[in-house]
Design brief:
alpha+beta, Ubiquitin-like (UB roll), five-stranded mixed sheet, 14% helix
């Protein structure tokens, strides 16, 4: 089973690198929750709440789908790097690595 490397930055600038397995169909949100990050995921990964919003800092990933774009458009502080972790499958990290910032609205 292959692994992806994700550098996770919090709002204070602290970072940790995690390895997550691919091939299980997990979303980035599920992997981050399993690693102990406080992601609410109120809607359960349906792109209806944006509680798993993050800033995508680095790494090649699939484009956001329409549901994700619709939800992001409702946010007053939406930026071009904003993504929903629930809509990103680990397999869609094309180069096997990424850098993200959690809770960008709290920075």
């Amino acid at each position: 089973m292959q692994q992806v490397q994700v550098s996770v930055f919090d709002h204070s600038g602290f970072s940790e690198v995690h390895s997550f397995p691919t091939g299980m169909g997990l979303s980035l949100m599920e992997a981050l929750k399993a690693a102990g990050y406080p992601i609410e995921a109120i809607c359960g990964g349906l792109a209806l709440c944006a509680s798993c919003r993050l800033d995508w800092l680095e790494g090649s990933v699939s484009e956001p789908n329409d549901a994700e774009l619709d939800m992001l458009d409702t946010l007053p502080d939406n930026q071009s790097c904003s993504r929903l972790a629930c809509q990103i499958r680990l397999e869609s990290l094309y180069d096997g690595r990424a850098s993200i910032r959690l809770n960008p609205s709290k920075s």
